[in-house]
């Protein structure tokens, strides 16, 4: 499974592109001169690595993060280094993809135990009796 994931990630690495621009935040003159902000762009619909089922899962689970053109855009501008921001964006990308493709666990409905039911009814009866005593 882990080897298959490495192949999967290596193939996906070829499918996304980067855009660089000037980053905001602290840094003074350095920030105004250097393009350190990184935008990782991945065209979900055009992917050759992902199956149609995986594409549909990504589109439905990441609907708010995917543009109208079908691109998933991840921005990283935390550091003053373009290389660090680039690697952070790639890590974020794989975390988001893995989380979206991970199957959700179905909730197991559990019945209330007999003891819990009895305790609830006992407490309810005691409260009812307490309120009844207040009337007289």
Name the descriptors:
alpha+beta; Double Stranded RNA Binding Domain; 3 strands; disordered N terminus
Q: What is the gist of this entry?
A:
The chain is built from 5 helices and 3 strands. The chain is of the alpha+beta class and 136 residues long.
Describe this structure in words.
With 136 residues, the protein is an alpha+beta fold. It has one domain (2-110): Double Stranded RNA Binding Domain (2-Layer Sandwich), CATH 3.30.160. It has helices at 2-13, 29-33, 52-61, 82-101, 114-134; strands at residues 16-21, 37-43, 71-76. The chain has a three-stranded antiparallel β-sheet with strand order 1-2-3, covered by helices on one side. It is elongated and about 85 Å long. The N and C termini lie far apart (73 Å). The model is unreliable at 1-7 (pLDDT under 50).
Question: Structural class from helices and strands?
Answer: alpha+beta
Order of helices and strands: HEHEHEHH
Give the number of domains: 1
Report strand order across the widest sheet. Answer: 1-2-3
Total count of strands: 3
N-end to C-end Cα span = 73 Å
Give the amount of beta strand, in percent. Answer: 5-15%
Largest sheet: 3 strands, antiparallel
What is the subunit arrangement here?
single chain
Overall radius of gyration: 26 Å
CATH class category label = Alpha Beta
Tally the helices: 5
Uncertain residue segments: 1-7
Q: What is the typical, i.e. mean, pLDDT?
A: 84
- How much helix, percentage-wise, in residues? 40-55%
What is the second-level CATH architecture?
2-Layer Sandwich
Task: Using the coordinates shown, work out and report the CATH topology.
Answer: Double Stranded RNA Binding Domain
């Amino acid at each position: 499974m882990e080897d298959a994931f490495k192949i999967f990630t290596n193939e996906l690495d070829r499918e996304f592109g980067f855009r660089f621009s000037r980053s905001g935040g602290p840094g003074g003159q350095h920030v105004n001169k250097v393009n350190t902000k990184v935008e990782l762009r991945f065209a979900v619909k055009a992917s050759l690595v992902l199956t149609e089922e995986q594409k549909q899962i990504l589109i439905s689970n990441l609907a708010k993060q995917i543009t109208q053109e079908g691109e998933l855009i991840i921005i990283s501008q935390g550091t003053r280094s373009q290389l660090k921001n680039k690697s952070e964006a790639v890590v974020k990308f794989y975390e988001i993809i893995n989380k979206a493709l991970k199957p959700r666990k179905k909730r197991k409905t559990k019945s209330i135990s007999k003891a819990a039911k009895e305790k609830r009814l006992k407490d309810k009866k005691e409260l009812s009796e307490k309120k009844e005593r207040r009337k007289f």
